[in-house]
Amino acid sequence: MTTIPVLNYAVTHTTLPDLLLTLPTILAEPKFHTLITLNPQIIMAAEKDPSISNLLHASILIPDSVGILWAAKKKLTQIPGVELTDAILKSSLTCYLIGSQPTVLKKLLSQIQAPIFGSHHGYFNDEELTKIIQDIQTKKPDIILVALGVPKQEHVLIQLTKTLTYGIGIGVGGSFDVISGTKKRAPTWVISLHLEWLYRGLSEPKRLKTWGYLIQFIFKVLSAA
Predict the structure, then answer these.
(1) Greatest Cα pair distance in the chain
(2) What is the spatial distance between Cα 120 and Cα 122, in angstroms, rounded to a whole number?
(3) CATH 3.40.50.10700, applies to 2-224
(4) What are 62's strand-pairing partners?
(5) pLDDT of the chain along its 225 residues, tens only?
């Protein structure tokens, strides 16, 4: 897999099928890996938090949004986090799930095909997180899917890297809500026009209040050009 620089971060140029084929090779390496489904919000969070910036530099970065494609001058292929999550949950890879509301997680667990080694909803304190990590360390799943939103999921991934010696931790945002059927994904024609981000914003107006990072991201890309 080759990489394309986006604001000093090396973003992987690949396709979803090729990435899935690569996961067993990554798992064969004797270390814990992190894979970030990268979007402008994560990059701007890294601007304010050096620990997230360090995580990005040490991770496999996959372009999850049209904003990243724009910053890379369309030299990358978008791999939506929800599609990556769905594909993993239909594979034979063993998984551990962290995130979402208890009712959403329960609904998701009743639908998926992959072998699940454990799960926990997204409401926990530091002491409970320590126990979750200990459980993961004991069970050694291939993939840990962390669906907590930015920046909480990135901080959980940082904690996982401090303890685990096997597996791939992936931040997947709101993927559990969509795959469980709790929330609807944008229509296919909207996705094909790369307007899914706008559809989500209009469907959940409260998201618009947090979109200041998009303006910051645009100015940062333009100033770096």
Answers:
(1) 47
(2) 7
(3) yes
(4) 37
(5) 799 999 999 999 999 999 999 999 999 999 999 999 999 999 999 999 999 999 999 999 999 999 999 999 989 999 999 999 999 999 999 999 999 999 999 999 999 878 999 999 999 999 999 999 999 999 999 999 999 999 999 999 999 999 999 999 999 999 999 999 998 877 787 777 676 766 676 676 666 566 778 889 999 999 886
